[in-house]
Write a structure and sequence with these properties.
- The protein is α+β, with helices and mostly antiparallel strands.
- The chain is built from 13 helices and twelve strands.
- It has two domains: 7-265, no CATH class; 287-425, Structural Genomics Hypothetical 15.5 Kd Protein In mrcA-pckA Intergenic Region, Chain A.
- Helix content is 31%, strand content 18%.
- Residues 1-5, 243-254 and 422-426 have low confidence and may be disordered.
């Protein structure tokens, strides 16, 4: 499943065991991750910051300032650098979202990144050891790269392990031009930056070439990195075997717990006692008002919270005079930053729309935010569904109801002669 294949390469030596036991974790040791992450938290502050509209990334105007506040700022030579051009900030943003300390809110037409007060309070109560390993789990367990807009079948953890075992523990890696370009894709420069900030990798920076980004001239595994990666690798292999033996291979967690590696790692790090706690948001009950758009046409639909997404699908299809004779899928961004997909009951993967109540959406969606409804996987009718409002005291609407319509619905099965004309209309 993972690298390496040879058992002896995974064996922790007595010297490495001693190193793990004796490692003191502070703001700047074994790496600078805690200091740099705290810098980002302080920058966001209690008021929050406006972020980009599409990816909800850090504001471009602040990137240079944030880079300069890092323990080890990098040099780049780009005219309009985006967040990805600063791999250390890109990696810190991944941790910020995966740790659930932050959330995205829509105000008017602008998006803002805020710190969750209760999660932040929990974070502040952790000691340095607990913070380090909770961030490590946020990175290697929960750090889905979809948060960064990446699409790859491999997890960041898998890519890091593949990269790690390509490096020689006894030699420096001096990357050349082609290797540097490849590393920007696998494992990704932000992954290399995180390996460095966690103290697993020593990186020697160089001067960037004209019109290019971060340039490093030498990489070295640290003794801490070798020991910790072996420990984590052995831990995940044992957990995978336990899941296989119990035939419990479901990796989709409804909750987002931290401390998954704590039982195996605590003997080496006894100061790891507590973990980040994430309060479960209360479900919002009442009548949900959605604006459902298909191209230029839209419908305003009200549905009580105890109905399901399957019921919402039915009323949407009714509003555009479509026959309910195909599969469907609802998808939206979770509060953790990755995509949740809710499928038709006849699909193979849970969750299913007939078991998913409308109120469950309130765990991730807030008024102003949207999800996608895909109907008919052949013709791919894609509707945008914006949550317009939640009315907790509405007692008049007791079933799914079409409140308003705008525009004529397209034909579900247009003829070849008028297909182009219908496409233009929607």
């Amino acid at each position: 499943m993972f690298y390496p294949i040879k058992p002896e390469e995974s064996a922790i030596t007595s010297i490495e065991e001693e190193l793990l036991h004796n490692q003191d974790i502070s703001l700047t040791s074994p790496g600078t991750i805690l200091k740099d992450f705290q810098m980002l938290l302080d920058f966001i502050g209690t008021e929050g910051i406006e972020v980009s509209k599409t990816q909800n990334f850090l504001p471009m105007k602040s990137l240079e300032e944030l880079n300069n506040q890092l323990t080890h700022p990098i040099q780049i030579d780009l005219k309009r650098p985006q967040q990805k051009a600063y791999p250390h900030l890109h990696g810190l943003y991944l941790l910020l979202r995966a740790s659930t300390i932050s959330t995205i809110e829509l105000k008017g037409k602008k998006f803002f990144l805020h710190l969750e007060p209760e999660v932040l309070e929990s974070w502040n109560q952790l000691n340095f050891t607990e913070r380090y390993f909770n961030l490590l789990e946020a990175w290697w367990i929960w750090g889905d790269e979809e948060i960064l807009g990446e699409k790859d079948w491999r997890s960041g953890f898998h890519k890091c392990l593949m990269f790690w075992y390509e490096l020689d523990s006894k030699k420096s890696l001096i990357p050349k031009g082609e290797e540097l370009r490849w590393y920007s894709y696998s494992p990704g420069l932000h992954q290399i930056a995180l390996l460095s900030m966690f103290g697993l990798l020593s990186v020697k920076n160089g001067k960037p070439k004209k019109g290019q980004g971060w340039h490093f001239t030498q990489l070295n595994k640290t003794p801490w990195g070798d020991a910790l990666v072996k420990l984590i690798k052995n831990t995940t292999s044992a957990q995978f075997q336990e899941e296989t033996d119990s035939q419990n291979l479901d990796t989709e967690e409804e909750e987002h717990p931290f401390g998954i590696w704590q039982p195996q790692l605590q003997p080496f790090f006894p100061k790891w006692q507590q973990n980040l706690t994430i309060p479960e948001p209360e479900l919002s009950q009442g009548v949900y008002i959605f604006k459902v758009s298909l191209g230029k046409i839209w419908r305003r639909i009200a549905i009580p919270s105890h109905y399901t997404l399957y019921d919402l699908s039915n009323i949407i299809l009714e509003s555009v005079n479509f026959d309910n004779d195909h599969l469907h899928e609802f998808s939206y961004k979770s509060r953790y930053g990755w995509t949740v997909r809710v499928n038709h009951p006849n699909c193979s993967e849970e969750p299913f729309s007939d078991d998913f109540e409308i109120s469950d959406l309130s765990l991730s969606l807030k008024p102003g935010q949207s999800m996608t409804y895909l109907f008919d996987f052949g013709d791919n009718w894609k509707f945008n569904i914006q949550l317009a409002d939640i009315s907790p005291d509405n007692s008049e609407i007791v079933k799914p109801t079409i409140l308003d319509t705008h525009g004529s619905a397209p034909s579900q099965y247009p003829s070849w002669d008028d297909e182009d004309e219908e496409d233009e209309d929607i």
